[in-house]
Amino acid sequence: MMEFRDLKAQYERYKQEIDAAIQNVITNANFIGGNEVKELEEQLAHYIEVKHCITCANGTEAMSLVLMAWGIKQSDAVFVPDFTFFSTGEVVSFCGATPVFVDVDRDTFNIDTVKLEKAIVKTLEEGQLTPKVIIPVDLFGLPANHIEIERIAKKYNLLVLEDGAQGFGGNINGKKACSFGNAATTSFFPAKPLGCYGDGGAIFTNDDNLAALISSLKIHGKGQDKYDNVRIGVNSRLDTIQAAILKVKLKAFIDHELDDVNGVYQLYTEKLKGIVETPYIPESYYSSFAQYTIKLKNKEQRDGLQAYLKEHDIPSMVYYVKPMHQQGAFANLGYDDIDFDVTNKLCDTVLSLPMYPYISINDIKFVCNRIINYFEK
Ligand SMILES: *Cc1c(COP(=O)(O)O)cnc(C)c1O
After folding, report:
1. Is 38 helix (H, G, I), strand (E, B) or coil?
2. What is the Cα–Cα distance from 18 to 20, expressed in whole angstroms?
3. Does any ligand 1 atom lie closer than 6 A to the CB of residue 55?
């Protein structure tokens, strides 16, 4: 049966190099903080074209570490898109601040910058919370409108943390995802554009002071060394084995995977255009296609198509079933459904299709033909 994202295909192709990289770490028994971690950080910083890359335990902690370093706290407002994975809002509440959810753009799935500015103005007028940070998400691989977000951040004196967990590999006019804002983060969860064999994450920034502070926070607030503790921190490291695996995978990602996945996008779109609403990539934007997400007319049509594909052994996913403002964990914030009509509609009408660099042309054609059949019924 076809897989939604077949991680074994990649392993088979790079088995020799990956096995050797893992074996090397085991032989050296340098499981924490081995050379591979430093080397990977240098390669990642070079690829993204930022001064600092600091790896950590996962993409959620990467965001928490940045907010912690910025001293975000109770009574601060952090602006987060309503249509994203839970952790973008979770990290805000985790540091005691309040996430202010903002509806998204129906075409790009990313934060609606007009509604973002309105939300900032409204928060200022209400006077309860102090606007501090915007966390734009590069959803499904497409960079958010970082040019407009930067303008808004400057105007209201806010910090920007780019959540590039799905965005790694994308760019706007050649400027890479994970290089926008005051800091950016990514995730190496196995199913992300650049995934490892477990959990992992990274922070990117050009800010020397922020990089130094995060490097301390992630190792128990270390000073001279980890037994000299100058502040309260956390334990958040990328294992040497994961770094060794990522070094092999980063090379494959740059060499061909990013191109290949964009080839998959083109073939899907060629076949599906006019039948369903295919992903929209604005002029001068490049997506790393963490997901290939189509839109259907309504929930009935979407659920019907998903069931039909399942009957034909084709896996598909609904990212995301529930808007952030409807999550039980945020019920106390008292959000009103009517402020989120785009996100509400997207949750009912989106469907993500099998997508990864190693999917075969035959599989893509099979998926497209079944979708065409569904609409002929
Ligand atoms: C996956 C993801 C995260 C969290 O990454 P983890 O490594 O799983 O903690 C954060 N934001 C978005 C948008 C994600 O997709």
Report:
1. helix
2. 5
3. no
- Which residue, among 305, 307, 304, 293, has the nearest Cα to 347 in the 3D structure? 293
Q: Which domain holds residue 295?
A: 256-376
User: How many whole angstroms from 194 Cα to the centroid of ligand 1?
Assistant: 12
In order along the chain (377 residues), what is the average pLDDT of each group of 10 residues?
Answer: 94 98 97 97 98 98 98 98 98 98 98 98 98 98 98 98 98 98 98 98 98 98 93 97 98 98 98 98 98 98 98 98 97 93 98 98 98 94
For the CA of 166, the nearest atom of ligand 1: 15
State whether the beta carbon of 58 lies less than 6 angstroms from ligand 1.
yes
Query: Residue 358: is the preceding peptide bond cis (ω within 30°)?
Result: no
Tokens of 377: 């019924």
Does some domain include residue 2? no
**Total tally of structural domains belonging to the chain:** 2
Q: Is residue 144 located within the same domain as residue 162?
A: yes
Whether the CB-CB separation of 93 and 99 falls below 8 Å is answered with: yes
